[in-house]
């Protein structure tokens, strides 16, 4: 069986083919898309009031700290309301600490948060801060 072209080429179709080749498409880079996603996430988390650390993971860390601090004690159970209060306090402290560290990095005319900003923030808060005891 012989195959044939369904229709002959016209002058118009060849010109549209050339115009398609000369047309340039603007592509958005992956970096820009990722940056937009991150900013969208930040806006979402600023509006939300829920806790960010998973409850089960936080409970495991609290129990591990309790065992390290009081090895002879038989207390291994914690009320859910006490865990929630601890978690809210911990998240509030961490958010405030990172906000202050970001301000230090901006003061140093940098965008990236570095370990030296965190060390300086601990020194500026002094010995009365909970993390320095």
Automatic annotation (TrEMBL):
What InterPro entries does the record tag this protein with? H2A/H2B/H3, Histone-fold, Histone_H3/CENP-A
Q: What CDD domains has UniProt attached to this entry?
A: HFD_H3 (cd22911)
GO cellular component terms, alphabetically, are: nucleosome
Which GO molecular function annotation, any one, does this entry have? Answer: DNA binding
- Pfam families per the record? Histone
Residue limits of the Core Histone H2A/H2B/H3 domain?
A: 37-124
* Family per similarity comment: Belongs to the histone H3 family.
Q: What is this protein called?
A: Histone H3.3-like isoform X1
């Amino acid at each position: 069986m012989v195959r044939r072209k369904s229709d002959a080429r016209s002058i118009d179709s060849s010109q549209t083919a050339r115009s398609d080749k000369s047309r340039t498409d603007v592509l958005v880079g992956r970096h820009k898309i990722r940056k937009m996603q991150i900013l969208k996430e930040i806006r979402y988390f600023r509006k939300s009031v829920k806790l960010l650390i998973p409850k089960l993971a936080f409970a495991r860390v609290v129990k591990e700290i309790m065992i390290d601090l009081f090895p002879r004690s038989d207390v291994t159970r914690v009320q859910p309301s006490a865990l929630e209060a601890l978690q809210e306090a911990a998240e509030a402290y961490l958010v405030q600490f990172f906000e202050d560290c970001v301000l230090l990095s901006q003061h140093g005319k940098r965008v990236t948060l570095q370990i030296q900003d965190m060390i300086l923030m601990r020194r500026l808060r002094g010995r009365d801060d909970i993390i320095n005891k």
